[in-house]
Structure formats: structure tokens, C-alpha cells
Amino acid sequence: KSYDFFFIDEGFGTLSPDALEQVVNALTMLSRDCLVGVITHRSELIERLPYSIKVDGADGDRGSRVTIV
Q1: pLDDT tens digits along 6-61
Q2: What is the per-residue DSSP string for the chain?
Q3: What per-residue confidence (pLDDT) applies to 12?
Q4: d(CA 48, CA 68)
Q5: 28 φ, ψ (degrees, to nearest 5)
Q6: Dihedrals φ, ψ of 17, to 5°?
């Protein structure tokens, strides 16, 4: 079965650098056929993705803030 998108919520926090490299390669290949979305806090993964959306939480003076990086 084929999908138009693939979404992953984290799951990379404890991966070794070698395993993270394999994940990046797999996501790159997957993104050729569908839209891939990833939630992560790993800066080394964020730096390798072509686009990112940063969400800053609300504080006492304003609501949440979304920035496309």
C-alpha cells in the first residue's frame, strides 16, 4: 500500500550516531515518494532536514509562536 505522507513522532533520542545516519538515509529515500514529517529534539537530525517548523510555547504575554526555518 502506498501513502501520501509519513509522520514520525520522535523516537530518535537514544540512537547512536551510526543509527541516526541510517535513519536520515531512510527518511531521505522515503521522502522521494511521499511527504515525510518528523518531530524531534535532536539537533543533528534537525540540521539535516531541508525544512523545519519551530514551535515556541506560550508565555504569560502571548500565545504559542510558530516559525518556519
Answers
A1: 899 988 889 999 999 999 999 999 999 899 999 998 898 899 888 899 999 999 88
A2: ---SEEEEE---TT--HHHHHHHHHHHHHHTTTSEEEEE---HHHHTTSS--EEEEPP-SSS--EEEE-
A3: 86
A4: 15
A5: -60, -45
A6: -55, -40
pLDDT at residue 10, rounded to an integer: 82
Q: Which amino acid, one-letter code, is at 26?
A: A
Residue type, 45: L
Q: Report residue 54 as a C-alpha cell.
A: 519551530
How is residue 49 written as a grid cell? 532536514
C-alpha cell at 35: 511527504
Give the pLDDT of residue 39.
Answer: 92
